[in-house]
């Protein structure tokens, strides 16, 4: 199957025809695509590459609707795309990646059926990560964080088991934000700081930006250098609010299931072209 093309397994006749014509068009363009991919690689291969990438994989349902399919199929294909994108990231030697898997809004306000569908994908993903060769060969430590009391207990247990199995890995780190909200993360950190002040572990004068960062879910990773969001939406949507203060933001106008390597490399190229002065 051509890169960047995902063929639906089921759906309407209109959607199937749309997908077929889309695939034929991509096949015709494949030689040009390969030349363009090589040209992009020549531009970015010398680096620098970000240490930490955050991903907001948006547009799964809209992608499915555009092809005339049940929106739930978009999440399935989006999940498959994520596995491929992670390999691209690790192939570049990028050590940290944080995926916005589910927001607190997803967990609270989506319909029961859609929420259960997303949780089933989370179950599948955590189980597959335990068996994924790349996780163990590349020594990828996995962390799952968010408002986990909104998450079914069996998924939380799967997450704990995966974290335990990979806790000694130190080459790469994969953060999975599940039922996550940046405002809630900051509130949780503030509460932890207050408790430590009350308990005498720290004083008010000990509180600094660096000290506060250690109370965040991402305390063991540097702040993201680059955040990529697909689907054409240009907002952060409550993702890593504290950590993204100086992140480079890249908004891509393709839906997540059709995100290609050339889209990823364009994001890297954009990052490399920016002058990062951190306010100086």
TrEMBL record:
Pfam families: Prenyltransf (PF01255). Mg(2+) binds at residues 58, 248. It catalyses: geranylgeranyl diphosphate + 7 isopentenyl diphosphate = tri-trans,hepta-cis-undecaprenyl diphosphate + 7 diphosphate. Its cofactor is Mg(2+). Homodimer. PANTHER family: DEHYDRODOLICHYL DIPHOSPHATE SYNTHASE COMPLEX SUBUNIT DHDDS, DEHYDRODOLICHYL DIPHOSPHATE SYNTHASE FAMILY MEMBER. NCBIfam families: uppS. This is Tritrans,polycis-undecaprenyl-diphosphate synthase (geranylgeranyl-diphosphate specific).
């Amino acid at each position: 199957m051509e890169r960047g093309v995902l063929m639906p397994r089921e759906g309407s006749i209109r959607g199937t025809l749309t997908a077929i014509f889309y695939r034929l068009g991509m096949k015709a363009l494949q030689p040009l695509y390969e030349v363009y991919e090589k040209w992009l690689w020549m531009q970015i291969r010398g680096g620098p590459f970000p240490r930490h990438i955050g991903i907001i994989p948006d547009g799964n349902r809209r992608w499915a609707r555009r092809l005339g399919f049940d929106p739930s199929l978009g999440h399935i294909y989006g999940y498959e795309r994520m596995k491929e994108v992670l390999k691209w990231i690790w192939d570049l030697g990028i050590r940290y990646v944080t995926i916005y898997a589910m927001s607190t809004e997803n967990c609270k306000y989506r319909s029961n059926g859609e929420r259960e569908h997303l949780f089933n994908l989370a179950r599948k993903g955590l189980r597959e990560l335990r068996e994924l060769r790349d996780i163990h060969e590349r020594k990828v430590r996995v962390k799952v964080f968010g408002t986990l009391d909104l998450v079914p207990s069996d998924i939380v247990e799967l997450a704990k088991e995966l974290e335990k199995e990979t806790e000694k890995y130190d080459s790469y780190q994969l953060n999975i934000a599940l039922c996550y909200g940046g405002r809630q993360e900051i509130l949780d950190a503030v509460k932890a700081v207050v408790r430590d002040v009350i308990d005498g572990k720290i004083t008010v004068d000990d509180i600094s930006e660096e000290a506060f960062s250690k109370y965040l879910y991402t305390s063991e990773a540097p702040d993201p250098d680059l955040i990529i969001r697909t689907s054409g939406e240009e907002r952060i949507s409550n993702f890593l609010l504290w950590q993204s203060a100086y992140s480079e933001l890249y908004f891509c106008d393709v839906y997540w299931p059709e995100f290609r390597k050339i889209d990823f490399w364009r994001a890297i190229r954009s990052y490399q072209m920016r002058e990062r002065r951190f306010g100086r």
